[in-house]
C-alpha cells in the first residue's frame, strides 16, 4: 500500500547554511513519499539559490517580502500537494525514521488534528526541550514545556494528548487545514502555533505528542536567543493571544495581572539591567495592542 505524500515545509531567513544542514538530514529520511518546500522569507543578507543548487529536488519559493513565521509557512502550504503537512524549523536536524510515527499517529486516529514529536536540544541530545505543553495560564498567558531541560531517560516516552503544539516540528493533516484554515499571520513571530492549536481544538480535534519520533533543535538561530526583536514579539503576542482566545472574564483577569504585575516587573528589570532596547521593545509591544483594538 502506497504511503501518503508528506509535504515538508521549512522557512529560511538569512540562514541558508543552517537550512542546508537540515536538508542533508531530510535527504536521509526513510519515509518514501515526501516533497520538500523551502520558503525564503526575503532574506536581505543571504542568497538562497545555493539551496536549489545543492538540493535540486527541493521546491524553493522566494517571497518578495518577509511574511514572518506563519506567513512564510502559509506560502508553502499553498504550494503543497501532500495529504499531511509537516512544518519544521530550519534550525533542526531530523533522524532518518522520524516521519513514520507521526504519520501513523494521524492515520490511526482521525480525531487528532496536530502532532509534534519529542524535541531535544541539538547541543545536548540527552536533554529534552519539549514533551508536550501544559495549559496556557490564564494569569500569566504562559504555558510550560513538559520535560524542559530534563534528561531523556524514558520518563517522557508515552504518547499522549497535550495542550499545545510546538512550532519547531508539527504535522497537520491537509483536510484539517482546509476545514480550520491556515495559521493566523497577525502574530508574525511567536504564539502563532498556540493560536492555531486553539483554533483546531475548537473545531473538535485533539493535539498530540508522539515521543516515538524526535528532532534536535538548535533554537532561535534567526532571531537570537535573547534579542529586542524577540522581546517585542513575545510581549506583543502574549497579550494578543489572550485577546483572541480567552473568554471575557479570563481576559479581564489576565490584563489586570499584566498591568499590575508582569509589565511593571519586566520594565523595572530592563531598567535595572540597563537593557534599554528591551525596555523600548516591551513598551512598543504594549502600544501595539492599545492601537490595534480589532485583533
UniProtKB/TrEMBL annotation:
Spell out the InterPro entries in the cross-references: Glyco_trans_2-like, Nucleotide-diphossugar_trans
- Record domain Glycosyltransferase 2-like: where: 7-145
One Gene Ontology molecular-function label: glycosyltransferase activity
**Origin: domain of life:** Bacteria
Keyword annotations: Glycosyltransferase, Transferase
Stored Pfam families: Glycos_transf_2
Similarity annotation: Belongs to the glycosyltransferase 2 family.
Q: What is this protein called?
A: Glycosyltransferase family 2 protein
Q: Which organism is it from?
A: Flagellimonas allohymeniacidonis
